[in-house]
Amino acid sequence: EYLRHLRDQMRALPDLDERVQWVQKAVTAYPGESQLAELLRHAKESRDLVNTLIAQAHAAEDCQEFSEALDRWRTVEGFPPAQPGLALESARVERRLKEQVRAARKSAYTEEVWRLLRAGDYEQASGLCAPALEAFPGDSELLSLQFEARERMTRGVEVKSLISQGREFLHARNVEAALEILRRAYDLDRNDPQARQFLGAAL
Q1: DSSP 8-state assignment for residue 33
Q2: Are 36 and 26 in contact (CB under 8 A)?
Q3: Torsion angle, CA of 167/172/176/177, rounded to 10 degrees?
Q4: Distance (Å, rounded) from C-alpha 125 to C-alpha 136?
Q5: For 63-139, where are the alpha helices, taking DSSP H only?
């Protein structure tokens, strides 16, 4: 009867250190009771395990490993009764995880747009900005990239015209005129592969 009453009292204590202290007092009062000693051992193991999980959760969060941190907090949630402030910790880490995933998604968009711009594929870069801005409406960085892609597309028309003129001069063996025209094309867009190719041929 006493053990059942003690277990009921323990379950009502959310603080695991208090649980250990509570059982320790009982063991001190009844030193020969083996079931109390077992209860104390179990209380200490539970406390130590939860403390280890909490420490791991904090360490993972410090390393920006929010998914792992959240897993640790959710494991702690499996130990009844609920620890004080546990729901707030889990919710906070979950928010940070969502922010991290969102930032990674945006970074993937910006990196791919920049890759396309460097490759001279301005139409594709501009096209990719549309779904990116749907996912991140009003984002200043993506709006800037979209503007850059459209500007380069506009310049691309002039670059292609200059390259065409430069090629004609090359065919006519007018190297000096070809160089002048192709240098203008290259200066307008140094990422254009044809501008680099024909300027190199003229040189």
Answers
A1: -
A2: yes
A3: -60
A4: 16
A5: 66-77, 86-118, 122-135
Closest to 40 in 3D by CA, of 64, 22, 59, 61: 22
Residue partners of 53: CB distance under 8 A and separation at least 6: 72, 73, 75, 76
Residue with tokens 């747009």: 113
* Structure-block tokens of residue 113: 């747009």
Angle at 26 between CA 20 and CA 27, to 5 degrees: 85
Read off φ and ψ for residue 57, nearest 5 degrees.
-65, -45
And the tokens for 200? 């190199």
Q: How many residues are listed for the chain in this entry?
A: 203
pLDDT of residue 1: 56
pLDDT tens for the chain, 203 residues long, are 567 767 767 766 777 878 888 888 888 877 878 888 888 888 889 889 999 999 999 999 999 999 999 999 999 988 776 677 888 999 999 999 999 999 999 999 999 999 999 888 889 999 999 999 999 999 999 999 999 999 888 888 788 888 888 888 878 888 888 888 888 888 887 777 777 777 767 66
CB distance 3 to 35 below 8 Å: yes
- Residue 67, phi then psi, degrees to nearest 5: -65, -45
